[in-house]
Amino acid sequence: MPEYGAAGQGGTAAREVGGFLLRRREQIAQRWADETLFRTVFTVSREEAVEAGRTVVEALAQVAGADLSADPEAPGFLVVREQLSQIGSARTRTGLTPSQVSHDVDALRPPTVDLLVADLPDAAPEAVREATNVLTVLMGTLRLVVMETALSEGQALIDRQRLQLLEMTTPVIQLWDGIVAVPLIGTLDSARSQIVMETLLESVVEQRARFAILDITGVPTVDSLVAQHLMKTVAAARLMGAECVVSGIRPAIAQTIVHLGLDLGTVVTRATLADALGYALRKLGTDIVSEASHGAGER
Amino acid sequence: METAAGVEACLPIRSDMDLVWVRQHVRQAAALLGFGLVDQTKLVTAASELARNTLVHGGGGRMEAAHVVRGRVNGLRLVFADDGPGIPDLDRALTDGYTSGDGLGMGLGGARRLVHEFAIDSAPGAGTTVTVTSWSVRPPLPREEA
User: Fold this and answer.
1) Using CA atoms, how far apart are residues A267 and A68, in angstroms rounded to an integer?
2) Would you say residue B74 lies in a domain?
3) Which member of A3, A255, B1, B37 has the greatest number of CB atoms within 10 A?
4) What is the model's pLDDT at position A6?
5) How many whole angstroms separate alpha carbon A112 and alpha carbon B117?
6) What pLDDT, on the 0 to 100 scale, is given for residue B139?
7) What is the number of CB-based contacts under 8 A between chain A and chain B?
8) B1, part of any domain
9) Pairwise CB contact (< 8 Å): A259 & B42
């Protein structure tokens, strides 16, 4: 950042630290491999941890050499960004909080500082302090980069899951010749009910369905917006020649709908999916009869 | 009160996702306070309507949940507040079927019927605050022995 880039002395110290990191990369990587962070992420072999540590140290050396110790966007970090995000997300997946992960990354600093001080036995105290400062800033930036990549990984995961949720909402099931059913599950917001309506209307055409059953057993809350979406879907299906039956209305939901003042009078409703299927079958002129009553005389 | 942890909360209402959060919190809090299934469902539905009003008409806001006690009956008080344009005509807004958006116009009036106590405070330009309270009328209280 500016204050480091501008100070000429800081620049020298930064280059020195860069040189130190490159010279001692093997030793540093060996030390890091024994720290919690590397031990828990690279569990297969110690060699793997050392290898990973070496790449990170080399990247740090490049960043320090370019005098960009405080810049998380430094080009040197690009190379190891994926590796760092792997480290960060592997730790958060095990249930660690971001601050715990941050603490783990910070644990890499003391052994590195020890090595740096040991590496400068004849330097003036002034220069040692300068170099230690640069290294501390550099390690702080590393910490920032790890956290940043881990968090953006989390955000990407959330976005993916949201899309997955949208997709898994609406299987249309053919229950009988001419009867399709959609079991609705979870929250029916505008985006999801739009998808429900589309897939239902498409399957009405595909299956030449006369009846479409919307089962809301899995919808925890039916408020006026959900009811509005249901009624719109029913109206649209009716335009296409299919009759909609809404099933799965639980007692608590029924009472709530009444209190809310919603008028579902235009919609055929049934308590259970089985009732709705029976209603549709009878309307189609079919019925399911049990074998016992049918063949009672043969016993 | 040991249930306070799961009841008291201030949740932001800024997106559709937040509505899900509001509903889940109200359901959990109501269950903790001993609400029956029907009362839970009513309160959650009312919260859903009011939170959506806060989001759609108020341009976002927040919900505060608080545990209230009257005698030995637990209650849940929910305050929905926004800094939106406010409601110019409260009576008309509470009329079933009246809507300033494209909804059914049942939200506010419906919510009032779903809760035990309902208060609304709004003025043009000053935002809207809706306070609702419901009581767990059938708590598992020990019977008073004579």
Assistant:
1) 67
2) yes
3) A255
4) 40
5) 64
6) 46
7) 69
8) no
9) yes
> Chain B within 8 Å of A259 (Cβ-Cβ)?
yes
Architecture of the domain made up of A2-160: Orthogonal Bundle (1.10)
The minimal CB distance from B41 to the residues A187, A252, A262 is found for A252
A217 at interface of B, judged by CB pairs closer than 8 A: no
pLDDT at A293: 67
CB neighbour list of residue A35: distance below 8 Å, 6 or more residues apart: A104, A107, A108, A111
Range(s) of the domain holding residue B122: 8-135
Distance of CA A227 to the CA centre of its chain: 30
Q: Do A260 and B38 touch (CB under 8 A)?
A: no
Would you state the pLDDT for residue A4?
42
Does the pTM surpass 0.90? The reply is no
Q: Which residues contact B117 (CB under 8 A, 6 or more apart)?
A: B131, B132, B133, B134
Model ipTM value: 0.80
CATH number for the domain whose boundaries are A173-294: 3.30.750.24
Mean pLDDT of B137-145: 55
- Out of B38, B44, B96, name the one closest to residue A255 (CB): B38
| Residue A259 Cα, gap to closest chain B Cα (Å) | 6
CATH of the domain at B115: 3.30.565.10
- Residue B3 falls inside a structural domain: no
Domain boundaries, chain A: 2-160, 173-294
A259–B41 C-beta distance less than 8 A: no
What's residue A169's pLDDT? Answer: 60
Number of domains chain B is built from: 1
User: Which of B27, B45, B96 lies at the smallest CB-CB distance from A256?
Assistant: B45
- A179-185: strand order across its sheet: A173-176, A179-185, A211-218, A243-247, A268-270
Amino acid identity, position A128: V
Q: How many CB atoms lie within 10 A of CB A154?
A: 15
DSSP letter for each residue of A2-50: HHHHH-HHHHHHHHHHHHHHHHTHHHHHHHHHTSHHHHHH--S-HHHHH
